[in-house]
Specification:
Structural class: alpha+beta
Number of strands: 11
Number of helices: 7
Order of helices and strands: HEEEEEEEEHHHEHHEEH
Distance between the termini: 26 Å
Number of domains: 2
Shape: globular
CATH topology of the largest domain: Jelly Rolls
CATH superfamily of the largest domain: Jelly Rolls
Strand content: 15-25%
Helix content: 25-40%
Radius of gyration: 19 Å
CATH class of the largest domain: Mainly Beta
CATH architecture of the largest domain: Sandwich
Length: about 260
């Protein structure tokens, strides 16, 4: 689960002269590989040297883009892969026995999706694209084998898993002890920092998820989310234009959480 504040691919190999190995390009953009990806410093290659990145490139499958509403995988599907978000955004949700859904996380470029399936060998959530999006699929069995050969890769993947556990603990604290306004403030500040990580404007961004999605994630009603957005705008802390949010007063937004 990602805290407010992360189809079978086509594999195409370069045809190079014998004995020379080069990164496998993305079939939809020949210039993309792990070595050249702008998100490499956020994703799995962060801890690898050049030759190790080439080995990771050999197992990565760069899938066809997904449209808004397309599922990356569904709850209880057999677990086979984890996914690195290359562009766009996703939400994860879980269906209860009564068929009602609950949003469990949002994922942005550079973040890893699908680790909820590692323990049980089946995905515990469904994950759906919130907009036009693309991912790199990493078959987990091959990632495990490569991790044994590359200790730096194994260490970094464990670090990602540790961060996910920490985020689960943080969201539990958020839902159990934060007021509604504090939850919204935390959520907006988290989105801001995550946009900044991928070199996008941290003070003005689109909410690709609905206010209902935000409410489900934060344990609030749609009406409460809308009321708090309106209240923050009246105070001059944020500016709301349909799905666009502009943070006008970062210090005052942070003060809501620390008060």
């Amino acid at each position: 689960m990602t805290m407010p504040g992360q189809p079978t691919g086509i594999r195409v190999a370069n045809q190079e002269s014998v004995g020379v190995r080069s990164p496998r390009p993305c079939p939809h953009n020949p210039s993309i590989s792990c070595a050249s990806c702008r998100l490499s410093e956020l994703c799995l290659p962060i801890a690898l040297n050049k030759s190790e990145i080439h080995q990771l490139d050999e197992i990565v499958q760069r899938n066809r883009p997904l449209k808004k509403g397309d599922h990356l995988y569904r709850q209880n599907d057999p677990f086979r892969s984890v996914f690195a978000v290359r562009s766009g955004s996703f939400k994860s949700y879980v269906l209860g026995q009564d068929g009602q859904g609950r949003v469990t996380g949002f994922f942005m470029p550079g973040e890893i999706v699908g680790m909820d399936g590692i323990a049980s060998k089946a995905y515990s959530n469904s994950t759906v694209a919130l907009e036009h999006a693309s991912v790199c699929e990493i078959p987990f069995s091959q990632l495990e084998k490569l991790s044994h050969q590359l200790p730096n890769l194994q260490h970094h993947f464990f670090a990602i898993m540790g961060n996910e556990i920490a985020k689960d603990q943080q969201i539990h604290t958020l839902l159990s002890s934060y007021s509604a306004e504090e939850r919204i403030a935390s959520f907006l500040l988290s989105l801001s920092s995550r946009y900044a990580r991928v070199s996008l404007a941290p003070d003005k961004f689109l909410l690709h998820m609905t206010r209902g999605d935000i409410g489900e994630y934060l344990g609030l009603t749609l009406e409460t989310v809308s009321r708090i957005f309106t209240g923050l705008q009246k105070k001059g802390i944020i500016l709301v234009k349909n799905k666009e949010i502009e943070i006008l007063e970062f210090d005052r937004l942070k003060a809501i959480i620390s008060s």
